[in-house]
């Protein structure tokens, strides 16, 4: 169930049978010459829609923005401060709680480490004062890991590469442009650098040339199955 498409009356009705809310979080971020800026939002939101076709769950209106460190200097990246991301999400969580929900899945299409840390910290902060709530917080890259192994997509493929381009080829083929190439960043270890574009100018971390629509379909469907299981588990838990 997509919350944005239902009425207030329908919302009241579905609350009787739906226990879990998924909040999809994306980012507006450079994804090479071939993928759209909202890639991270499209991948996770479309997977959430597949989940909603398989199980009764409420999909919250998604958050398009996220915190992007490494791609920040690249054209088109809009990075939101972590404190703002956290404050905003805490507010959204309070509102869902006020409307009667206690199980929350925060699923991010953006896999940046700092971004993810803020999402986890949001859940930690909320659960401290709402101990009866349940949280599942993950990013798409973590969730896809076992499937990437099955498809023999190398672990170092992480951004605008084989798996991400495959998902966009599957969900939004009309938005995939020419110009993809294999590339990897070379950030110096443990350094925080101002001129990030010196070490990563393409926004590609992997090999998008190996992406196919078929792989995208497998990734999307298997990920939806994993999420359905996780929702069932959380809802069964006493
Ligand atoms: Zn991405």
List the helices and strands and how they pair.
Elements: H1 8-14, E1 20-25, H2 39-54, E2 58-59, H3 82-98, E3 103-108, H4 113-129, E4 134-139, H5 140-150, H6 162-171, H7 213-236
Parallel strand pairs: 1-2, 1-3, 3-4
Mind explaining what this structure looks like?
The chain is of the alpha/beta class. The chain has a single domain, classed as Creatininase (Rossmann fold), CATH 3.40.50.10310. Helices cover 43% and strands 8% of the residues. α3 packs parallel to α4 (113-129) and α6 packs across α7 (213-236). The longest helix has 24 residues, at 213-236. The protein is globular and about 50 Å long. The two termini are 24 Å apart. Bound molecules: zinc ion. Zinc ion binds at residues 31, 39-40, 110, 159, 164.
CATH superfamily: Creatininase
What is the overall silhouette? Answer: globular
CATH class: Alpha Beta
How are strands sequenced across the largest beta sheet?
2-1-3-4
Number of strands: 4
C-alpha termini separation: 24 Å
Query: What is the beta-strand fraction?
Result: 5-15%
Bound small molecules, by name, code or SMILES, are: zinc ion
Return the average pLDDT rounded to an integer: 97
The main pleated sheet reads as: 4 strands, parallel
What is the ordering of alpha helices and beta strands? Answer: HEHEHEHEHHH
Distinct helical segment count: 7
Query: What is the annotated CATH architecture?
Result: 3-Layer(aba) Sandwich
